[in-house]
Write a structure and sequence with these properties.
Porin; eight-stranded antiparallel β-barrel; 5 helices
Amino acid sequence: MNTVIRKILIPMAIGIGALGSFTAAQAQVGDSVVIRVGKESKVTFSIKDKKDLETLKHYNFQALMDDMFKKLESRDTTPLTKAPTEYLKDTVRKEEPVETTEDWDNDWNEHRSKRSYHGRKTHHSFNIDIGMNNYLQKGQFPTGTSGELYTVKPWGSWYVGLNSILRTRVSRKLFLEWGGGVSWYNFKFENYKTVISKDDNGVIFSQDPRDLDFQKSKLTVAYINISAIPVFDFGDNGKKSTFFDGYHSSSFRIGFGPYAGYRLDSYTKQMWYENGEKHKSHDHDSFYLDNFRYGLRLQLGFRDTDIFFNYDLNELFLAGKGPQLNAISFGVTL
């Protein structure tokens, strides 16, 4: 059988599958359909059950004819060995469900729980610590009733930290949050007349003798810091939840670990009114403050907010140069 017959026969055979209505009409008159090819050749379709017409529509005639031509060209008169079902086209299409936002969330949570451990192990976030600071003297807060001029007024003694944090997975639910940043202690004194000075022996706290309307007196200390906080995240979240990136975790997490810092600057600030006019003064000095700070940090988190508590293990001032004070700070991390 030459290539001309092949070019004629294949399209005609495939056309039978597409023209189901024509085939059905022929089947109603008789039980066979004959297609003549050339002068001496013909193809006969014998239809004995109308239900077979639907099956015929799904036949892959191209594959069937290819196998038939191979046998004819090789003069192989044996029957085809393939089962008839092997020539059926796979026309069953699954109707895709309409996805909802809830489906996307579920898919994402499932993907994160399965792949987060094996995926990227370190994520970056930018955090802001906002809270209050104070200090402890022999385990207690100094009070104005005991006469210490360095007693701090809690409201207005703000602690601020700007941190660049990397979160590295250690195990399934254990992470290490490590990085660096800058922070500021602001110790606002209860006595607005408090003045800080120093001599060769150490730092001196005294009262300003001027008869003025004092409104504020504080000590500010700035540090550059590093930290490494192991964190247990019970939600197995590879990425840290933060207020700014819109990622919200519904799991609880707890972390506890060390930090250290180096003093960048320190100064005192006074503010007062004289003859109705506002005045300010700044005095930048070390005031025998320890250049280093180191301590422990506790943080508890849920969703995109953490609560932190920092405790400096070393004293604020150098030994023998000032009162024995250990700085603390606490607040929220956004």
